[in-house]
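ERR on first pass: missing label on line 2. Operator R.T. fixed the label and resubmitted. Corrected input:
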Amino acid sequence: MSTTEIDRQWTTRLRKRVAGKLPPEKLLPDTQPTYVSSWIYVFGVTTMAALGVVIASGCLLALRGPQWWHTSSVGHFVNSLHLWSVEIFFFAMVIHLWGKYFMAAWRGGRALTWMTGVVTFLTSIATAFTGYVSQSNFDSQWISTQAKDGINSTGAGAFWNVLNSGQMLMWHIVLLPIAAVALTALHVLLVRIKGVVPPFEKTTEVTQ
Amino acid sequence: MRSKAFRPDVDAPEWKGGHSPYDIIKEGTIALVVVSILTVLLSVAFGSPDDPSITIKAWSTNAPMDFATTALSELNATSGSAQYGAPYNHASTGQQLGPLTLAKWIGVRVPVNSVNDYIIDPLRSLPKQPALTADLSQWSSASGSTRAGWVKDYSQAANQMQIVNGQLVVNATNAGPLPVMMADLFQMARTGALDQALVTQNGFYTSDYTLPLLFLADGTYLSGIAQKQHLTGDQWGMMNETGNYPGQAWLWLYTFWYQIKPFNASGNGDVLVWGLMMVLSAGLLLTPFIPGLRSIPRKTRVYRLIWREHYRSLP
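pass 2 clean. output:
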């Protein structure tokens, strides 16, 4: 097989493209610009850490099925872990979002990074909502019967029935987490590729 | 190489300053440990709410008149779900966003027939009882106009509805089989059989609670409990949950619109709020491209606080 033929392979092209965009020193950096020195940077990694705890506690809940936590004190505690990790997740994520807004973190070709972050935020809201309506208790009864009117008014209720607990549970534990994790991964990779946005400076020209 | 004017809200200066050591793995590990500990502490301290679900059995036992009135509203098709429109039925246009009738356009995809789904089909699931079987047969063989006459007569007589010794009593003289059918439905609810019948209409295994939830929502028992728990829409309830827990605090903006006019006074309030939230979400998503909105960070100078060490180090 000739070198040219190897170079034309999809695998080779993809590897070269990935390696060019995201060399190991960018993916796992050991230095950072000195301006990356503020408490606000903590909330990005905190959001990621909380997402990890959310997924881990959710997996524990899944082990014994959706009714387990109603009948077991251990299950109830695991549910509490799931709840509070979600609260921490959103708390950190919202502060991260506002911090990035006031840093105008989309500057310097980082618009896609910003947009993936916003879509991740919206996807997370949908994920949490489906969790609330999948609890199979009074809260899920009340929240779903209230939420149906909003969803139905848009026409989406025809396909996304919040009163169908099975559908909501599947979205909560399969489809939306996959989307949220994939979006988070893409967001983080974009951060690593583009780097952390520099501070505002008095610059009059940009070179392309 | 060409140069163009620097756009401060779009472009970023190239960093020519120094770098400092950064251990991303260590940072991530510390964050995970801290968040895990914090999660455990919060869980031990506060736990999580789990108020049991409301059953139709409990509803018909604790609030029998509300249940009976709601069942009547399903019979004469005056209930909220019977009058809802899409996606449940064609009874109304549904909410409109200006000229847009979004739900109606998409149509009835979750069909609900209040008479059949809440009364006739559950009664048919009961083991054979001669009187009821005869009444159901009478109902099935009657013409539409005859049924309408029975329903009208029963509805008028139901103004004097009573619960006597745990039995639903409606003295309707020209309502055909309805007094017996509705009395049997009432008994069925109080035994818990109606709970089961409403979720097993599509077979043994089920996870679709559309029918019982719509039924519960048509009554006032569920909302009465929610009111006591401060969960109704005008109490910012859509973001809350039972007990003193944060709930979905991130829905504060969505819930906020329901507290003010014109949203809380409009019959199209839901679709108006959703339309507004879609616009706001699109604005958030497209902030990097919206002049004015993308300039706020630079003009408010909050970034001076965020990067204060950096600016302090500048000559």
